[in-house]
Structure formats: structure tokens, C-alpha cells
Amino acid sequence: MDIQQLYYFMNIVECGCNLSLAAKKIHITQSALSQLIINFETNEELVLFYRKNGRLDSLTPSGEKLYVYAQEITKLHEQMNQMVRKEAAKQKGTIRIGLPSLILRIFFSSFFPKLSVDNTNIKIEIVEGGSNYLRKMLFKNDLDYAILIEPTNLDTKSFEEHVIQIDEMTAFVYHDHPLAYRPLLHWEDLKPYPIATFNETYTTNELVRNKLRKVGLEEGIKLESSSWDYLVEATQESNIITILPSPIERTMDKTLFKEIHFKDPIPFNVLLCRPIKQSYSDVESSVYESILRYFYQPVI
């Protein structure tokens, strides 16, 4: 079987050996699928399916072995196609960079558009997601660069890291919250109130949980989301305290919501990360150096 026929064979199996259902799913005639199986079994002298009343019923042991190989081969075929598309994109000057939506909006909203306009030979492909998700993509070589939150848990022998922003986690509350006008918070102050933060795809979730665990408040987390707008606005309807990175303060309505710092804050440090290679293309080096210059430029 060629690769397309392997996909057809797998589809038949995954549709419970129902040729009619399989044909509808992949938009091919039932007779064509039936003929595919008949031709293979005839030419290879190998029976793939048991029959019952003239219909396919289940896989024979040989069919089961072929199905296992088909799964592996089609998976490798998809991975190969992804690699080809990615390498072709690199040759065209495309750089894939992953970063959390919050970081994109607050720190890079003007940077990437300007970089693309000023450098017509560079195409930036942005992948948004939580740090945990982006780290996995970086491991699989699906990203050229990633903007991650410390700790990155990357192997320093395989990945290069540069701190580009140092900040902290803070509490966000509605303006009439009992703690709204406290100058500083102790973590124990949160005990009577429900807590909200980013979901587990974000490093923030892990950092907040670890901190709350130390003071016996981990069970206090009642709300999680990937949307910082939602998490901040959720404080209007209750006494929820939302714990998020401090830069979010720049996006909120300060007449409605208050930001309160902790006496013992959780660090929120942003790092630019990339795989260590013997050499980088001109486009790769240009984008990387541009990001570093952008964050390290002297304040006037």
C-alpha cells in the first residue's frame, strides 16, 4: 500500500470495519475502498479482515500487525511533512517564535510589526500559548525562539537563555474589596478569600500553587483561566483575589480594579530562549539580536 492507501486502511479499522461509514468520512466511494482491500489481499495472498455475511467484521492477526505498522508509518509521514514545511519556511526567512499572549500584548505589540516592516526579508510567525506548552514545542524543535517565564526548566547545555524583563506577581482586586487599600499584602491575608490565577498551561499557575502550598492556602484556588481580562474582571462579582503578573496592571481600568504588591512576592522574570546550535542563519541572528537590543536599550 502507498501512504494514501494506508490512511484508507486505518480509516476502515477506526470506523469499526464499516465500509459505508469509512467511505463517507473520507469522501470516497464504498466500492473503491472495498476494491482496495480485495486487491491487496489478492496480490499479497494475505487476509486482513474476517468476514461475516459478506461484510468486513474484524481484523485478522495479520491485519492487526499491519494496523500497528500503518499507525507508525503515517505518524512518521506527518512528522516528515511538518519538517519539510518548517525547513521551507526557514529558507524563506520565516522565524517561529512562541510567547504567552500577555507578554505579546504588553511587551511586543509594537516590536514585531515594526521589525517586519523594517525588514521585508523577515517573516515572523507568532505562536501564542502558556510557557509550559511553548516549552514542549521548543523541545520538539517546533519553535526557533520562545519567550518563557522563569524557571524555564531547560537544559542549559542545549538551550541558551537571556533575561529580558524582571518583575513580580501581584494581587488584583475590585476597588471595594476589604483589602483594596492595603499598602502591602502578606500571603496569610488571602486566607478568607477565594483565589484566581492562570491555568496549568502557564508557569504562573505552578509558581502561585507552590507559594500557596507553603502557607497552607493551595486549596484556596477556586478559579483558573487563560484570560487575564476575565480573571481580573471576575473580582467584581465576589471577594475573589486574582494573582497575576504585575505588568497586567497596564491593561486594566484603574478606577475599578486595584493592584496590591506582596511583601514577599513571587518573581516574574521573562527570558528569551533558543536552542544552542553551531551556527545560526542571518535571519535567526538578526531577530535574536533585535529582541535583545529592544530590551537592553538604555533608558534616556
TrEMBL record:
<dbReference type="InterPro" id="IPR036390">
    <property type="entry name" value="WH_DNA-bd_sf"/>
</dbReference>
<dbReference type="GO" id="GO:0003700">
    <property type="term" value="F:DNA-binding transcription factor activity"/>
</dbReference>
<comment type="similarity">
    <text>Belongs to the LysR transcriptional regulatory family.</text>
</comment>
<dbReference type="Pfam" id="PF03466">
    <property type="entry name" value="LysR_substrate"/>
</dbReference>
<keyword id="KW-0805">Transcription regulation</keyword>
<dbReference type="GO" id="GO:0003677">
    <property type="term" value="F:DNA binding"/>
</dbReference>
<keyword id="KW-0238">DNA-binding</keyword>
<dbReference type="InterPro" id="IPR036388">
    <property type="entry name" value="WH-like_DNA-bd_sf"/>
</dbReference>
<keyword id="KW-0804">Transcription</keyword>
<dbReference type="GO" id="GO:0005829">
    <property type="term" value="C:cytosol"/>
</dbReference>
<protein>
    <submittedName>
        <fullName>LysR family transcriptional regulator</fullName>
    </submittedName>
</protein>
<dbReference type="InterPro" id="IPR005119">
    <property type="entry name" value="LysR_subst-bd"/>
</dbReference>
<dbReference type="Pfam" id="PF00126">
    <property type="entry name" value="HTH_1"/>
</dbReference>
<dbReference type="InterPro" id="IPR050950">
    <property type="entry name" value="HTH-type_LysR_regulators"/>
</dbReference>
<dbReference type="InterPro" id="IPR000847">
    <property type="entry name" value="LysR_HTH_N"/>
</dbReference>
